[in-house]
Amino acid sequence: MTATYGPTVGRRRLRSALRTAREAASFTQEQVAQEMDWSLSKIIRIESGAVGVSPIDARALLRLYGVTDKPRIDELVGLARSSRARRWWSSYTSALPAPYTAYIGLEAETSSVLCYTPTKLPALFQTEAYAAKAVRRGQASADEQSQVVEVRLARQREVLGKQDPPRITAVIDEAVVRRIASDPRTKREQLERLVSLCGEPNITIQVLPFAAGVDGFSNPFAILEFPDPADDAVMYLENGLGDDVVDQPDLVGPYRHEFERLREMALSPTETREMIKRIVGELE
Questions:
Q1: Domains of the chain: residue spans and CATH
Q2: What is the pLDDT of residues 30-56, one digit of tens each?
Q3: Is residue 123 a contact partner of residue 152, using CB atoms and an 8 Å limit?
Q4: Nearest-CA neighbor of 215 among 273, 244, 173, 277?
Q5: Where would I find the beta strands (DSSP E) of the chain?
């Protein structure tokens, strides 16, 4: 049963199940910490998903909460075991922000991605040359910037190249496709990649045109949906001060509504492909 879930979704399910079991047993986090001889911060971090939980600790918590159903115990202990498995991005975690690492794990297990990008192309669509130009500069060293590009390209291979890739729907501001790059080679390569992606059966790209007028929504975001309806959608927010992963349905819902509004304002997929092809033609 646990094999159905990857390590990131598995950890998410496990922390939710442990929190539910604690509340059903009428334990406070402080009481659990005292009973387990743990620090309060440990139980808080487990339930928030900031850290994983070992199979031994998971079994001990379930015993404390009075969970006796063996199949349920085996399932949750199995989730604890699988959530600790190493993945391809594990070697990069020290160089990446925690929210971004969490997002990569969730992206690897998603069935649908909805993204809005008003300033740059979605990472899954970027060529290597474009990605190198799009990396945030600031205090990052050349090695750190190189690692970010490596991770971006690895995400493309792992997500787009798998046997059953997720459905990806992207709304991209017209300014993004017109301001691809200053050098013609990078610009042509990236635009031709977009034209190619427009033809993929699992990818829908729509450009939000200048003609749509001024819009007050400027922050990029991505919403991840999962195969099992029991797993709520997760949102990744990007901003200049730091990125964040949001998994509260009451916060994700309004962004889902906003995404649909932006889609209605955008060009159709066919119109989008024709626009990009015209821009490529202008490079002749």
A1: 2-82 (1.10.260), 95-125+154-281 (3.30.870.10)
A2: 999 999 999 998 999 888 776 778 899
A3: yes
A4: 173
A5: 112-117, 167-173, 203-208, 221-225, 234-237, 244-246
